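Re-running Mannosyl-oligosaccharide glucosidase to confirm reproducibility after the cluster update. Everything else is unchanged from the original entry.
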Amino acid sequence: MRLGQALAALAVSVVGVIGVSDSDAEHAAALMSNRSLFWNTYRPQLYHGVRPRAPHSLMTGLMWFGLNDFTGNQEIRHTCEQSDALTSYSYTQHDGRYYAAQDLVDGKNNVKISTSFLKSEDGGAWSVRVEGEAIEEGRPSRTSLIYHLGLEGLGQLRLETEGDDSGLEGEIVLRGSAPQLGDFRIRIVDHPEVTHLSAALYAEEFEHLTGMTAYLGVRVPDGEVWRIKATHGADYVMRSINAVAQRLMTGGVYTPESPPDPFALFQLQNEAYADANVYAFQKAFAGSGITRGSKWGFDVFYEPIEGSDKGMTREFRRWPVLTPDLELSNALASAKKVYETRFDATFPLPAPFNTEDHKTFAQAITSNLLGGIGYYHGASIVDRNFKHDYDETDEDEDAGEEKPALTEERELLTATPSRSFFPRGFYWDEGFHLALVGEWDNDLSLEILKDWIALIDEDGWVAREQILGDEARSKVGELS
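Result of re-run:
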């Protein structure tokens, strides 16, 4: 039997074992496993991003920049970049399925941003909490945050909250639908009693912007939703912010010597088109004078609408509808305790490496591996021209030279070697990744392995580096 045939047979065998079964019990277990792995932080190339394990669907992300001076908007943090020179960005806890906590420490802008992700038990609903605080008291810590959501492929996404030229007030509600998701609702809610940033320059003229959420809704071509903030090509966020800044600076009121406050100058346009499939929501906070301790923040809730979730059996239609602050706080605290208990049982640390510092470190390195898991979909570029001398045949010589070509579209759930340099799948690295992932969650490691096996072609060949789709290719640099 040829090597390719043997590996193909192995692939069929593995897929049958872990994905397909005539047993109702095993099928239900596999379905539950897939549901629990459907939504997650599967955009590791972003500092924060959530998406499902499905192509052409809903994707979210977070970006931020400083408002301490007039240059912060030129250094928007979005994709993980070494050039951003963050003090650190690290998952402190991540269980690979339901719960994650991360700290983004931006020393230059004097802000520490914490993100938390929590999913309902059935995997259908999820919540994100974004909190921030000043790193050093006494230094300015004025921060603009933009949370964005985009829907690719079939479906619709519409903003239900009415806005005006000043922005959106209070809770933000969107409704949407997609073939893989059914109908859903998304809510963005500020924490109770939070104090928003106000303009320090020309305060009275921009008083109406305090506490408002600036917004943008645009139509982005299919396959380019990830480009809402792109290093190269279309950049919908910067285009909108620049339009507002240009309008203010050319209106005859402000001059370069006496400009408006950066808070007012660098805002989204407060407009949304009827056919928009991408929305961005911008909030501004300060790191001092904040109630609820020194932190500010907001929560994002994704909630399926009962009865509309296509293909989901009735037992999977139960999920809690969380409310901000207390209920989500309690749920996150409970998830944290469950995670720590499980970690202690799975990875008991021997003395003298069992101090709290050692435990924190062990949780972080494990969580960053799990937080580096991403879902990728799209075509890759393969050059089959290279052959060893012993592979050449007369038929090859007659066939002529092959050129690099796009493959058919594929999908891959994979851990990634680096969120900044290599946010994509590497065959060699994955063996080492799965050694640890398997100890923590064997079913998760098998799901990843199943995706890799599905990439093996009929000749038994699989590319060592999987760069699937334009978003993954946008992060390919001279170091790859």
